[in-house]
Amino acid sequence: MRVLVLGLDGADRDLVDRLLAEGRLPTLARLARDGAYGPLRSTIPAVTPTAWSSFLTGLNPAGHGIFNFSSNPNRGRSRVESAASRSGAPLWRLLGAGGVRSAFVTVPFTYPPEAFDGVVVSGYGGPERPEILPETAARAIEERVPGLVTAHHPMKERWWEDFGRYAATLIAHVDQIGEACRTCFDLEPDLGVLAVDFMSTDFAGHLGYARLDPAHPAHDPAASGDELVQVYQAVDRVCGELIDAARERYGEEPTAIIMSDHGMKPIYWTFHANEWLRRAGHLRYRRRSLQRFLRSGLRKVALADGRLARTTTWYGRLLDLVPFVPRPPADRAFADVDFGRTRAYCFATGGQIYLGEATGARDDAAFAERLARDFEAIPHPETGEPLFEVLRKRDIYHGPHIDRAPELVLIPRDERVHVESSRRDWPDVFMHHDTLDPEHFYGYSGHHGVTGIIAAAGPGIRPGTVPEGSEITQLAATVLRLHGLSSAGLEPPIETILAEADEAVSVAAESSDSDADVYSADEEAGILERLRDLGYE
Ligand SMILES: [Zn+2]
What we know:
Blueprint: E1 3-8, H1 13-21, H2 26-34, E2 36-41, H3 48-57, H4 61-64, H5 91-97, E3 101-107, E4 118-122, E5 132-133, H6 135-144, H7 163-187, E6 191-198, H8 200-212, H9 227-250, E7 255-259, E8 263-266, E9 269-272, H10 273-279, H11 299-311, H12 315-320, E10 344-346, E11 352-355, H13 365-376, E12 388-392, H14 393-396, E13 408-412, E14 417-420, E15 430-432, E16 446-449, E17 451-457, E18 464-465, H15 475-482, E19 485-486, E20 505-506, H16 521-531
Parallel strand pairs: 1-6, 1-7, 2-18, 3-4, 3-6, 9-14, 19-20
Antiparallel strand pairs: 2-17, 4-5, 7-17, 8-16, 9-15, 10-11, 11-13, 12-13
Helix pairs in contact: 6-7, 7-8, 7-9, 8-9
């Protein structure tokens, strides 16, 4: 059995349904017709590091411990997350334990790569140039796809200067990754699973919505275009080519799963969560801070200042009284929050609300409940209907890393509302998203939604509808089951899409629990600086 897992990063359920109805995604349409099709729920938060980590380990986020691109410094060691800081046994180890060879091509959060029975091309959430193992594969891929990158980051490509050019780059990247996958087929005559992710659909969604959607507040008729759809079509085409190539190479019909790690919605309004918390009296900013020195020779002083501000209740108050200490810049750093007087704050993306550690608010269950109800009462900026579904930690997380999880997560019922966590002084809590500024939130006009897609067809798949509520976290067990394997402790497979099978053989693999340093201090500082506008560091 050959299983292909083809990832359309960030492919949105509603948009895909529309494009299927218009006949514009023929590969996906064929899988949906011959097999199973339906929604695939992302993780909460619906962010790339978390969703792909759940895909790879089959674990709830509190099981693998990855909630963000970087950890919340108030909930453990401050670091940029990677495969080395993730708990659980990745899918390639479980497959290997069952004697199945696999290839993982540009799947996010596979860096640093580890050697296993197969090929790995590290993906997004690592260095720009992928690291490829084994050496023979690195040479073969470098020869056939010279200069391959994990993803074409929009800021580096200066997308706002010529969006047509940037979209062409995204499409060319799809073909390059397709060629890297075909190289894996040639290298691996006995391949059991190939998993690949195309980041191009994610970036096209973040940046192309204002051009595609005439109702988008930032839509400019003079700068409209359907590049977003063209990128979806390119990935659909390459998925079709890979299914054909696998059939030809291995002489049998492969099982094909096309999936996405989260959805993607246009942003019509931004909800500035930290501004709301500040006005409600739950969050305070420091008036004096040494965080300006973080990128200077006084880095150690800034780090000590940040640590004291995060862990004590007296330091922020004291420093506020010292007149010659500078004021924080307008785009305040994380440590410019006066945690000694803060009972709740929003961190990173995906609507994550953390309750104050230094103030003890984190352990105040009554406060958490009151705050959740206050959030639930916030009206939609246009309709006035209650906007947020507020998820409580205990209802969504289970696993050894639950202490690192946010206490509340805000999920807008209207996903055109973006919950953001920057620490600037915003004139309003809700703002119409009518200007796209690359200097803020990369100029994104689209953002992640919770609902992605899954289509599956071929040997081992039962045709039909995928039930609502099926989750990305279930895919590891689903892929294992297609090879007649199971593993204890994983979220269960999506049974409805699986044909009747014999009893699965149970496999086990060593779980990671390392805390190794992957990036140098300089690399970490650079990555965090780029993430700052998303509400990190
Ligand atoms: Zn993603």
